[in-house]
Structures are given as C-alpha cells and as structure tokens.
Amino acid sequence: MNFIQGIGARVIVQIEEMGAMLLFLVRSFGWLFRPPLRLFQITKQMHFVGFKSTFVVILTALFTGMVLALQGYYSLRKFGSEGLLGSAVALSMIRELGPVLAALMVTARAGSAMTAEIG
To answer: Which of 29, 74, 78, 110 is most buried (CB neighbours < 10 A)?
Structure first.
C-alpha cells in the first residue's frame, strides 16, 4: 500500500504544480489588460522580440538545413534514394528541428539584447 500511496502523493504534487502554473498564466494575462494600457510598448516589444529575430532564425534554419542535406545525402546514397532527400530535409526541419531552433534563436537573441540594454 505504501507504493500506491507514494505514487498518489507524487500525482497530487504534480496536479498542484499545474494548478499553480495555470494561476500564474491567468494572473499574467490579467495584468496585461489592466489600465493603463501600454499598447505602444506592447507592440514595440512584440516587434523587437518577434520580427527583428526573423533574420537570425532564417539564417540558422538555412545552415541547419544545409548540414542536414549534406549528411542525409551520404546516408541515402548508400541505398540509391537520393531523390527522397528534399522531402526528408523539409519534413525534419518543419516538424522537428524548426520549432526548436526558432525558439532557441528568438530566446537567445531577445534575451541577450535585453541583458545588454539593462547594462
């Protein structure tokens, strides 16, 4: 019975943590729309973090796709399937690597710029 109680205790702790995260999210969105609304500052930050990171994300995706294509070519050449290289690279970049690398690059660029701005 102790084993089942231990599992139950861990599940309860995880549910409490999820509830705390949900409350934090709701409160954060609540503060976003309280007066005074600083729509200009919000859109300025969205432009700074989102749009200005586009070049870095595209550059990272370009070089990652080239390396993936180069490595994939040598692997697919062994089986005579070089024609599948384009779809394999596209699928792997869109489904797997693209979102992860985009998140990393946006976070790194925006975080380093904000840190430099703070001084």
So the answer is: 110
